[in-house]
Amino acid sequence: MADALDTAMLCRQYGSSVLRRCQAIVGDRAEAEDAAQEVFLTVMTKGHQFRHDAAVTTWLYRVTTNVCLNRLRSAKRRRAREVPDPVLEWGSLTPVDPYQHYRHKSLLTRVARDLDAESQAIFVYRYVDGMTLEEIASTTGTSRRTVAKRLKAIEQLITVLESAP
Amino acid sequence: MSVEDPMPATSPPALGCLSDLALDRHVGGDALAAAAAAHLATCRRCQERRQLFVAAQETSAGRVARLVAAAATAGVSPAAARRRRAWWLGATAMAAATVVLVLVLAWPAQRDDGVRFKGASMRFMVQRRTAITPGVSGDRFQVGDALRFVVSVDSPCYLLLLGIAPDGAVSAYYPFAGSKSERLEAGADQALPGSLVLDDSAATEYLVALFSPEPLALETVRAAGRRSFANGPPKDERLLGLPAAVQQRWVTIRRGAAEKD
After folding, report:
1. I need a labelling partner for B35 at 20 to 30 A (CA). Which of A13, B111, B174, B200 fits?
2. What digits encode the pLDDT tens for the residues B110-145?
3. Within this chain, do residues B171 and B56 fall inside the same structural domain, yes or no?
4. Residues of B in contact with A132 (CB under 8 A)
5. Is residue B13 part of a domain?
6. Measured between alpha carbons, how far is A157 from A119 in angstroms, rounded to an integer?
7. Does B165 share its domain with B66?
8. How many domains does chain B have?
9. Which residues are CB-contacts of A89 (< 8 A; sequence separation ≥ 6)?
10. Domain check: are B67 and B131 in the same one?
11. Which residues span the domain enclosing B128?
12. Cβ of residue A111 closer than 8 Å to a chain B Cβ
């Protein structure tokens, strides 16, 4: 099935969507491009895991979310032991682009400290992608009830974080 | 028992708006449900988001495809891509055992079209592994070195950064895969997006940067490239066929042997 996915076609058709979401989740444009690259390399190597009971778009959303959240976690670990890489700052010199509208990295970073991986993904689908309960349930393969419970916990956490001094 | 949708007011799309997923599918060709279509027909915000998605698809998808193709060609695995920053922009076109970087600065006379072009400068930084140093004309570079370009212009102008193969074939690096130069606002130290990574191909390539008061079509420069490189790299360090007012400056960068990891 990996062949049937045709990675080149997927890049052309969904590349901007994947890049936009990477930018929204990881924030930095250069990091987002790296993440988008990783997403499609993952598709090339793990395309056989794609089940055609889900839309390609949904599957790419899931892969992209996992790749970006893993990068955020890795970045957090790196920051603890490395000096800042000045190259990472180059991106800040580029003009602000439309993707900035979708940035929720600050909130995500703060929320992610207290959430498990599944809830982090649900946070992304809700607060970055603006998905409905049904869309999140479909994307994550869980029930609406589970998603609703998790979202309620996330909202409570956000309330606590935002009320903290 | 139904589950209420606890859509918070602070969530990016306002209540009732289409999610990014729904818009992505719609832009990708999927039909919207009747309710969603009705909302889209009346919601200016969603209409603007859709336009943004369509525009991004036109400008970004090709770039992502090139990034992925370059990485795949280089045999980069997802794990490797995750471990280190993978800069593959232009990796295939930047193939060169010896790379000659040609920076051509165009200085046409002022025009009355509201865009007045006085001056510009361009420098570049080189990342070799974790070290970053200013790039210097005539230095030797190595496989894997990533070049990042930073421009300063004192008034609005247009920039076209090109790669020219020894046979005169031209490709655009900035704007990446573009067909004409991109407008730059006045300002110092504007880093161009992406980086050029030197690979270990045997080809030689020349880079040309053009600053101009109005957009330059890639096709125009392609013709100039073919003329200028008809008998090899031009010894007078000038591209032929550009306006007489164009002032050209050349910077040469040569690449040495690859370092072993």
Report:
1. A13
2. 333 334 445 677 777 777 766 667 766 667 777 777
3. no
4. 5, 7, 19
5. no
6. 11
7. no
8. 2
9. none
10. no
11. 99-255
12. no
Among B residues 9-48, those touching chain A with beta carbons less than 8 Å apart: 10-13, 17-22, 24-25, 27-28, 30
Q: What is the mean pLDDT of each run of 10 residues along chain B (261 residues)?
A: 32 65 89 90 84 76 76 64 43 32 31 47 72 68 76 81 74 76 79 70 68 83 83 74 61 55 38
> Which residue type, as a one-letter code, is found at position B107?
W
Helix-, strand-, coil-residue percentages of chain A, each rounded to 5:
80, 0, 20
Pair B62, B180 in one domain: no
- How is residue A101 annotated by DSSP? G
Q: Do B12 and A127 touch (CB under 8 A)?
A: yes
- The beta-carbon neighbor of B19 closest among A20, A90, A129 is A129
B3 within some domain: no
Long-range interactions of B218-222: CB distance < 8 A, separation 24+? B218/B160, B218/B162, B218/B170, B218/B172, B218/B178, B218/B179, B218/B180, B219/B179, B221/B160, B221/B162, B221/B170, B222/B169, B222/B170
C-alpha distance across the termini of chain A, in Å: 52
Q: At which residue do the structure tokens 């974790």 appear? A: B130
- Residues B113 and B242 both lie in one domain: yes
Whether residue B63 is found in the same domain as residue B156:
no
What SS3 class is residue A141? coil
ipTM value, please give it.
0.79
Give Cα separations from B147 to A53, B125, B197, B243 (angstroms): 44, 6, 6, 29
Would B137 be classed as within a structural domain?
yes
Burial of residue B84 (number of CB atoms within 10 Å: 0-12, 13-18, 19+): exposed
Assigned domain for B79 exists: no
What part of B 182-241 touches A (C-beta under 8 Å)?
185, 189-194
Query: Which candidate from B8, B28, B68 shows the least CB-CB separation from A13?
Result: B28
Are B62 and B184 contained in the same domain? no
Ordered domains of chain A (ranges, CATH): 1-97 (1.10.1740.10), 104-165 (1.10.10.10)
